[in-house]
Structure formats: C-alpha cells, structure tokens
Amino acid sequence: MARTARRQKPVAPPPVQAAGDLVTIDGLEVAFPITGGLLNREVGRVHAVAGVSLSIRAGEILGLVGESGCGKTTLGRALLRLYEPTGGRVVFDSVDLTTLRPEELRRTRRHMQMVFQDPFSSLSPRMTVGNIIAEPMRAHGGADGPDMRARVLELLDLVGLTAEQAERYPHEFSGGQRQRIGIARALALNPRFVVFDEAVSALDVSIQAQILNLMLELRRDLDLTYLFISHDLSVVRHIADRVAVMYLGRVVELAPADVLFARAAHPYTRALLSAVPEADPLVEKQRRRTVLQGDVPNPSDPPSGCPFHTRCPHARESCAQAVQELVEIDDGHFVACHRWDEIDTDADLRVPAYSGGVE
Amino acid sequence: MSTSLTPELMPDPKLPVTAEPEVVPARGTSPGRAKLLAFLRHRGTWIGGSLLVVFLLMAALAPLLAPYDPLAVNADVGLTAPSWAHPMGTDDFGRDILSRVVYGSRLSLVVGFSCVAISAVVGTLIGLLAGYFRGPTDSVLMRVMDVLLAFPGLVLALALAAVMGRGMLSVIVAVGVAGVPTFARVTRGAVLGVVNTDYVLAARAVGCRSTWILRRHILPNVVAPVIVMTTLYLAYAVLYAASISFLGVGVQPPTAEWGAMTNAGRGVLVQGWWVSTFPSVMIMLFVLAVNVMGDSLRDALDSKLRRS
After folding, report:
1. Contacts of B211 (CB under 8 A, 6+ apart)
2. In chain A, which residue's Cα lies nearest the Cα of B135?
3. What is the ipTM score, two decimals?
4. What pLDDT is attached to residue A61?
5. Which of A81, A107, A169, A173 has the highest number of chain B CBs within 10 A, making it the mutation to test binding with B?
6. Is B13 exposed, middle or buried (0-12, 13-18, 19+ CB in 10 A)?
7. Pairwise CA distance, residues A175 & A77, whole Å
8. pLDDT on residue B10
9. Which residue, A40, A16, A37, A49, is CA-closest to A307?
10. Which residue numbers delimit the ABC transmembrane type-1 domain (chain B) (predicted)?
11. What's the pTM value of the predicted model, to 2 decimals?
C-alpha cells in the first residue's frame, strides 16, 4: 500500500542548492502526535520544529542555540532523518533526503554523522570501544581484518586515545574520553557533515575546552562541516562561524557569530545574551539585563502571530496578528521580528567571552 | 586495647606521597563477565545448581540407578510399604516406585526443557519484533498474545493437549505454546526500554540495518530477563506437564512420569501413601531447585529486579 502511494506521489522538482551550501533545509516541520483516549487516537500535535529554513555552508560551523524544548535536538535529528519530518525538505549535497527510500537513506548516512549529548548512554555498554568505532564500517560493508583494525587505531589516535584502550568497555572511561569515542565513531566513515547535539554540555568546563579544541582541529584537518547544537552561548561564540537562534520550533535570528554577539536584533536573542552569567562583578554592574516574564508557551498550543509576543518586552497588539518570516536586515543577518528596527540595538550587551578555552 | 594509635602505626609525614600506580587491565572487563562472576558467587546458585545436577545425573544414569525395571509388574509385592528391598515401596501393580521415579525424571526433564525451548524461542522472537517495529506489527502480535494470556496457562495447555490428542508430544507443544505470551511480554518490555536509548539511535545514525541492530544491540540487552524467565518457566513447565498427565490428558500409563504417577496413586492414598507422595516430592524438589537458581540468576543479571 505504501509502495503504490509512493509511486503516485508527484515527482518533486530537482533540489536547488546555492553554490557553497552543503545542507539546505527548506520549510522543515516535525510534529509529534499526542495520543490519548481509549484507542490511542491523535488528540493533538506538538510542533517541535515549525517550518525552519536554513542552509549550512560547506566547511562552516553553524551554531544552533535556544532554550530547552525549543526544538534544537529535534531539528538536528530530523536533519539526518532519525526523526521523520512531517513537512519540508532537507537537501544534502544535491540529494533530497526526505524522499530517499530506507536503503538509499542508509547508504547516504555514511556522509552525515552525529555526536550525541550524553556520552554515557550513547555507547553500548556491551561492546568494546574498538567494536563501537568499527561498527559504522561494518554497517557499510567493511570487512573485518587488519585494515579495519588499523583504521580503528588511527581513529583512536585522531581523537587522542591510545591503541590499548580499544579492548576496553565504555564504563571504564571518563565522560570526556567517552565523548572522544563518540567522535571517533562519527568520523569512522569519513563523513562530510557532523551534527554535534549538545556534545559538550555534559562535560566539565576544562574537558569541554579540550573537546572543543579537538573539534576545531578535526574540522581543519578533515575538511568537515558542523551543525553545533547547544544551549551554552559562550561555547557557541567560541566555536561557531554563524549562529541560528531558535524559539518554539522556529529560527528567530541568524547571523555571523561576531555580528550576533555584538548587534543581536531580535528581542529574544538579546534576552538570551543578557542572561549569560558574567564572573567579573564590575562588568556585571554595567550590564543591562532583560529578564523575560513567564514561561515558554506550550508547543502543542503555540501563540498566534509571532511566537515570542507573549513574553516580548517590545510586543504590540499587531505582533499577535501575523507571523514574521526571517528578513535580511544586514549582510547575512536575518531576523524574524515585526519591530526589529524600532528596538535600540546599540545598547551594550557585553556578553562574556568563553573562559574555558585553554589552548 | 588503647584507642590511640601507637607511634609506629602513624603514617610518617616525611615519606613521599607516591601516586597509586594506575591499574591497566590487559583486556577490559565486560559487564557480562562481571555478571557471570556475581552469579557464581551467589549462594542460591550452589544450592539450586547442585540439586539440579543431581536431577540431571539421575535422568542420565537411570538404567544404572534404578534397582528394578520401572514397568515390571510383580503381583507378589503389590502395594508394599517402603522397605530395604523397595526403598520407596511399590504401587498396586507391584512396580518399584524408586525405579519409576528415577525413570520418570527423564521424561519430566525432557518435557520441561522442550517446553521452555519452544516458549523462549518463539516468545522472544515475537517480543523482539513487536517491541522494535511497534505500530501495526506490535498491535497484531500482542493482541494474539493477549488472547493466549486470557486463558489460564494450565487450561490453555489442557485444551491444546485435548485437541491434539493424548501423548507426550502434545503435552510439550501445549505447555510450550502456553508459555509464549509470557516470554513475548517480558521481551517486548525489555526491548521498549532499550530501543529508544541513544546507542540504538546512534547505531541507526551510522547506518546499521535493522537486523544488525536487533542482533547486536537489542538482543544482548534483553537476554538477561529472558534467561531469568527461562528458569522460572522451566519449573512451571514441569509442573504443568505433570498436572496435565495427572489429569489424564498427557502421558499415558504405564509410562513412568511424575504427574501420571501422582495421579495413579490417588486411588490408594489411604492404603499406600507412598505411591503418590514420592513422585510429588520429586516435582516439588525440582521446582524448588530451579526456582532457587532462577532467583540467583535474576539477582546477578537484572539489578532492577533485585529485592535485596
């Protein structure tokens, strides 16, 4: 039944990608059904990702920030089709991932990998580290033998682990070491694109810095492109070339990192930036802090119009009427706000720099 | 004894603080190995295990151990009480109870292990498929299991045995099928706990096939509860098989089988208590041995189920 349905589907126009873009996300939507009642009928939907369009340029690190529950992780997973998108398209290197059949998708996965947030749950406790790192190669037809063994050792070396650790089990490693194992696994197939989903959030600050530096080194040496998902603005500032800010399943601002941290235009971004803790009390005194009122609205019942209007200090009645799409206000600086040009963007936010990065 | 430390027991502050040399095992310790050790260290393993070994030896060496032919009828010694010649007495046909109990262990063990094999293999497979694929597969398979579960196990086994006709094979199939839903439920539950973990998602992200994920990631994580269930159901299976024979649907006389023997002695319980008692004591001991060992397995394998 599913097969005939697929055949009858009109042929999608060939994917269009601007030159230099590796990943193009076009109106991506992911909705999870809320089931209830006697027969598990769908009683509602949570729009975790509510129409996101973004492109990731080859070789760049795109930071994706937002509060917990804003849909960052869902976006990252839907991007690799670990979650099925309910709308929109994802184009990876001129291939539309959203229409691939399961087997084609499986083969395409070698080019795009993921590093998970929790270094403790993302490694199988029953496999040796060597087997964990070799698994992607086995999945793609690699034969066991001296070549694979050599590749595993090469990968261990690449992420700063030693050859004898290949025979050990994950529970014998620390969080930072485990995250290195996760990175080695992600790099095993020489991917071109890696999604780091809160990959350093579970680590100590000193270990975070090591892993971030490792990531930067690997990008330089292996010509990689990253999507770096995080809620930690100072970490994103340290590593990202461009930053996208998500709120309630939508991207509200997108700009080069230095521009975003200096001249954020969206009231939500400004509130986020002003919330970054500052260690120096003298600097702290001079900062102007925007404290948001209320909580993030329930994504199963999002507010009308601009999703942020319920908490925005600059909201007018008109903000509740229509959704504002992203508009380019400066070269490469996109904002989704009705009133961005009325807000005083010169007020100094003084976002503290990332202090963990000890090179 | 004085409470203060003698000077020579005090650490010398001038001694250099040497760093503890890091112990690097040549090979990592796998969680499975640690669990095996925990199992072997458990008291129940030894109690239940040694009893079980006795039963296995008894079944294997039946011809050597049994003093008489289990089927030989001897009218001269009909229904005699336990004595040196017949340690467990004789039944009303003059057959030696001890010999029949020893030979009966063969049948009971074969029936028990075959039943569990059917239940465990079929049930685990169904549970794996239902839990991994969810959706319609899950609904259809589990509704079928619910139907089977709706009958009490013994009634279901009895009905199946009655439909398939009398005999050992139908007892095995009937008790085996009756155990499938339990295994399917337990496995499915364990699969649901594993299928959404990050490492299964990670396996999918690197491009592993479903069959690989099921075999390499899911199955190893559900074997623990399945093994525990296997031991517990082994006891039930022997009990069910004996009950079916006791009720007259299963193994037919004159074959020596514990349940059938218990049934045969029912009529002469007042004149000869030993006819029913010894085979039923064997059933009880076997069930006890398997249960004790199952408990220690559960303690070693499934820390979540442990009731300290």
Report:
1. none
2. A40
3. 0.81
4. 93
5. A169
6. exposed
7. 22
8. 45
9. A49
10. 105-294
11. 0.75
Predicted local distance difference test score (pLDDT) of residue A345 = 59
C-alpha–C-alpha distance, residues A313 and A261, integer Å: 20
Q: At B237, list the tokens.
A: 């299976």
At B244, which helix (H) or strand (E)?
helix B219-246
CATH topology of domain A2-332: Rossmann fold (3.40.50)
Q: Which of B30, B199, B206 sits opposite A113 (nearest CB)?
A: B206
pLDDT at B296: 82
Strand ordering across the sheet containing A87-92 = A41-57, A21-36, A87-92, A95-96
Q: Please tell me the predicted confidence (pLDDT) of residue B184.
A: 93
Domains of chain B, by residue range, sit at 35-57+90-305
Domain topology for B35-57+90-305: MetI-like fold (1.10.3720)
Domain residue ranges in chain A: 2-332
3-state helix, strand, coil in chain B (%, to 5): 70, 0, 30
3-state SS class at A91: strand
Whether residues A128 and B207 touch (CB distance < 8 A) is answered with no
Q: Which among A33, A12, A22 has a CA at the least distance from the CA of A89?
A: A12
Q: Which residues of B touch A123 (CB under 8 A)?
A: 199, 202
Residues of chain A where predicted confidence (pLDDT) is lower than 50:
1-9, 357-359
Q: Which residues of chain B have pLDDT under 50?
A: 1-25, 304-308
At residue A348, the pLDDT reads 53
